[in-house]
Amino acid sequence: MAVWGIGAYFQGEGDITKDCLKENVAVIGYKEEEKPRYYEMLQSVEVGDLIFIKSRFMLNQPLRIKAVGFVLDNEVKNISNVYNAKGIKVCWKRDFSDKPIQIEKGRKHVDDTHTIYQEKDEEVIKKIVELI
User: Per-residue DSSP letters for 23-60?
Assistant: First the structure.
């Protein structure tokens, strides 16, 4: 089982975490032709993987966890109810969107400032698993 972090901030819309939770999805806020790398990563996500909605804009800030869940369907499809974004189906288990959980991380983890990334830090993974 892999652990994935995904953002939920859409330029022009703001934070769409609640929309993702309501529709049981995780989505990419860019068109596929704009950020093909993000879609390649999303296609690597497997059913049963742990996924969390996160925010971390700069490396001197903590990783903020807004929701945690499991991937139900990894087929990337258009999600018309969430700004016509493309995404996958998720069973969200915990919602921290009103008061995100903060996890301190070092400055070496530059991937976690991107829209989607695979978490590799064992200590962070342990803390996220404990949230379920």
Answer: HTEEEESS-TTT-HHHHHHHHH--TT-EEEEEE--STT
